[in-house]
Amino acid sequence: MKKSKVAVLGATGMVGQRLISLLENHPYFEVVKLAASSKSAGKLYSELMADRWKLEQNLPDYAKDFILYDVFDIDNVAKDVDMVFCAINLDKQSLIKLEEDYAKKEVIVVSNNSANRMKNDVPMIIPEINAEHLKIIPYQRKRLGTNKGFIVVKPNCSIQSYVPVFHALKEFGIKEASICTYQAISGSGKTFAEWPEMVENIIPFISGEEEKSEIEPLKIFGKIEDGKIELDNSMKLSAQCIRVPVLDGHLACVSFNLNENPGLEVIKNKIKNFKSEISSYNLPLSPETFIKYYEEDNRPQPVLDRDNEKGMQISVGRLREDTLFDYKFVALSHNTMRGAAGGSLQTAELIKKLGYLD
Q1: Which residues are catalytic?
Q2: 131 in Cβ contact with 278 (< 8 Å)
């Protein structure tokens, strides 16, 4: 397979760093350009990141000698590039314009940002769940006036742990759910050294997270109708999102009602035996087992389970009957892998596998 040439926009941030690390020796992609804000443009990446690299893994050798582009130098960044991974931090309207401008240069944009998520012709993909939403791309291309370029986004990190469980149980119909997510500090792009106020602390508010947690699953489970992804309004979701003193790993506690209740053991077996439709694609980052169920009462735990299958597996446990709802469970996902950089890269792998880069 011929490698596609890619650039990383927002290369200095935590998600950008994770993407650069994951793209080292990738079988599908070759990184040819790195870009960041105008104040970083023109600088040598290794020198700029000498005291800013946040990952446990060392900065990959291949990336050290890149000279950073300005992300707004779109003509030069997009030249001879097939795809860009967008992880730059800007206001919503600036991001919408930036991503659309790259797409109009006939570049495929894989975005970590929320700005374009709720556009009804922009697919918001969890590859194991709604790969069919990529069929909306011809409608988006028509709107943008492109032949090749388009935008695809990944959903918010806060929904990645419980939405896969809802998908495994979709034949029974999720009627309503109450969700509380306990979210790691890396979701803010920070470490404990940068955010010492989080040590031994809990903050019961994360701006924008609850709204995203309640509406984005409705798009994930939506259907394409008349050139639009229509939301699935058959379920009602209520979410609370809390920042906790954990470095990586978002935990969700979920109580839910079903339209049809087949019993606890049937539901548990559906979760345990779930197999995604893309499992035969053998994408480099796809986990062998998408959802792992733990029988132990004290699992899943971030420290023990977040790195399962390169951080791309969903861990679930404590499924049991509830006194107010039908059932409740606990689920865990790695927020900067499955929920951010890894999810974006896996989506790019899916796009490559399906021929959109040919």
Answers
A1: 157, 250
A2: yes
